[in-house]
Amino acid sequence: MDLLEYQAKTLFREKDIPVLPSQRIDRAQDVKGLRIPYPVVLKSQVRSGGRGKAGGIRFVENTIDAVAAAQAIFNLPIRDEYPKVLLAEAKYNADQEFYLAVTLDPSSRRPMMLGSIQGGVAVEEAISEVQQVIVDQEFSSFYARRLSVKMGLHQDLILAVSAIIEKMYWLFVEKDLDLIEINPLGINSSGEVMALDGKVIVNDNALGRHRDLAALIQNHHNPAKASLTDVYSFPFPCPFDRVLLPRLKMVELEGNIGILSNGADMTLTTVDLIIQAKGKPANYLDLEAEDYTELTEAWGDHLYQGLELVSQSDQVKVVVVNLLSHVVSSQKTILEIANYLQKKANIGYLPQFVLRLAVNPPREILDQLAQLPVQVAESLDEAVKLAVSLAK
């Protein structure tokens, strides 16, 4: 589950990660009682990216402008999501902007720290320059310094940024998070570091161990728990229990490679690898459900709906299916994909499929797949290379 920015920064404060003075705004008129001196920035609190380009972030110099801007932002949907809350924050003049993140490496199942000197929107255009350090032994500050050096930092900046990375790591581990991201980490002329924006993805299955996170989420209306048909327009019925729907979230891009995976980390890793290989993702969808035991019975419907959703666009030439099939047997997963392809074989257009599972399917299943428009890759790297080639 994605936290909103103001919720993420609540966690940052607990770990002494520096954030700007801020104030939650529940109604446009609340800005009249701002305790933060102007100029301030008003930010739409939605889970979608691209808030700035959509007009969801505005700088204001006085109360009159602030009220008008707040009203406009509250009435501005970003990818069909209206903000229930705004964040008012002090303005910060950054000379440099970095990107930092901690997530789980899907291959080693170890924490992985990411960093780039190209932060903010620039990181999307320089994804290949993002540095990685996997924490493969007991953590020490060495790992944080190593990432800072790989980013190309020097002297005092190594110390300052390493300290932030270390705090992010411990927050990631102690709260059982799926992702913690600061983008950008601002650096001003005096060398002060500041988390200007933050993203945190909570592992839903760990909420029982972290009542503070559960309380943080419950204190805000959670649109991700609404019916998915309120967010996405489904051209087909949803036969499976709606309790599974909140985890079926698709992000639409402008490329020609669709991505279907299970787990936020694995999904985003697949996206990143395709971009690094000069491919262009068209969309990506995370199949992960909140309760795998409940999902097992409905897995066929769940997987079918995911395949249908990610491949329905005419711009999608190839679909990469990258699944860690501990949910159900790999045989059942592949059979469901085969059934889907057989049902769709007679329609006018069907993209090519590249299948990569974390376990090796039986020979008889591979023989069955050989009769269908799907290619099986033994590794994620191979799947990405194949998909990019097919999409050209």
Automatic annotation (TrEMBL):
Domain of life assignment: Bacteria
GO terms (BP aspect): succinyl-CoA metabolic process; tricarboxylic acid cycle
GO cellular component: cytosol; succinate-CoA ligase complex
tRNA-binding is among the record's keywords: no
Keyword ATP-binding carried by entry: yes
PROSITE patterns listed in its UniProt record: ATP_GRASP
Domain ATP-grasp, chain residue ranges per copy: 9-215
Full protein name: ATP-grasp domain protein
Organism name: Lyngbya aestuarii BL J
